[in-house]
Design brief:
- This protein has about 260 residues and is of the alpha/beta class.
- It has one domain (about 10-195, about 225-250): NAD(P)-binding Rossmann-like Domain (Rossmann fold), CATH 3.40.50.720.
- Helix content is about 45%, strand content about 15%.
- The protein is built from 8 helices and 7 strands, in the order βαβαβαβαβαβαααβ.
- A 7-stranded parallel β-sheet has the order 3-2-1-4-5-6-7, sandwiched between helices.
- Strand 1 (about 10-15), helix 1 (about 15-30) and strand 2 (about 30-35) form a beta-alpha-beta unit.
- The longest helix is centred in the middle third of the chain and has 29 residues, at about 110-135.
- The radius of gyration is 17 Å and the shape is globular.
- It starts with 8 loop residues before the first strand and ends in a 7-residue tail after the last strand.
């Protein structure tokens, strides 16, 4: 470990899968990690584990689609650790269970669930974080989560138009705020992964036809990506190694977007 995040305070949304892998890596690199998740049990367990490993960590339960809860979470982070230097927005959902799917079958509830949980939550967390970073006056880094489906659709197995739209919104939003806040030293980038082994993708992982497809579509992985496969890129984009990188969408997809 290089200690790239020594003295840095990093807020991570989500507490399992990609978020958990990143939080653990940030802790190993010396960062103080503040975990924000809707599921208090998961957030608490992750923060406790990071602390047990010798790191500095805390947590707060919050519904990230709710303005007041997001604002309170960022205030709590700054109060706990004295500042906020970077944010990794991982938390999100597949809205399939709410009615997301092909357009002719999609429900309004499914559409709104996808936009709210994936795009609105990103907006609220970024806004609260930028306000805190501007107050500090020393810049910062935001990293948001998109998906290969935003630009490389797969109609046979992943026909969730609301989810794709929500992730496309995250990309456009991130470029816009990256341009506006560059003069303040606040960088904004995006990761767009392919199919990753997380609790959210359990349905796909249990489908042999989908797995056969993914082995072809993600040849570098030979199947489903692991959460740790995103860690190197995430930590690079959040660290000073990427101090001249902003407004970029980086595909970490095992080759999906080339297929």
């Amino acid at each position: 470990m290089t200690g790239r995040f020594e003295g840095r305070v990093c807020l991570v949304t989500g507490s399992t899968g990609i978020a958990e892998a990143a939080a653990r890596a940030l802790g190993r690199e010396g960062g103080s990690v503040f975990v924000v998740s809707r599921t208090a049990e998961h957030a608490n367990a992750l923060a406790d584990s990071l602390t047990a490993d010798g790191g500095r960590a805390s947590w707060r339960a919050a519904d990230l689609t709710q303005e007041a809860e997001v604002e309170a979470a960022v205030v709590a982070c700054a109060a706990e650790f004295g500042r906020l230097d970077c944010v990794y927005n991982v938390a999100g959902i597949s809205a399939r269970r709410f009615g997301d799917g092909p357009l002719h079958e999609m429900t309004l509830v499914g559409w709104e669930a996808a936009i709210s949980a994936n795009a609105t939550s990103t907006f609220l967390v970024c806004r609260a974080a930028v306000r805190q970073m501007r107050k500090q006056g020393s810049g910062g880094a935001l990293l948001n989560m998109s998906s290969a489906l935003a630009t490389s659709p797969e109609p046979r197995h992943f026909a969730t138009a609301g989810y794709a739209a929500s992730k496309g919104a995250v990309e456009a939003f991130s470029r816009s705020i990256a341009a506006y806040y560059a003069e303040a030293g606040i960088r904004v980038n995006v990761i767009a992964p392919g199919l990753v082994a997380t609790p959210m993708s359990e349905r796909a992982q249990a489908d042999s036809e989908v797995l056969a497809f993914v082995r072809q579509r993600q040849p570098l992985a030979g199947g489903v990506l692991q959460a740790d496969d995103l860690v190197g890129t995430a930590l690079y984009l959040l660290s000073d190694d990427a101090r001249m990188v902003t407004g970029q969408v980086v595909a970490v997809d095992g080759g999906w977007s080339l297929g």
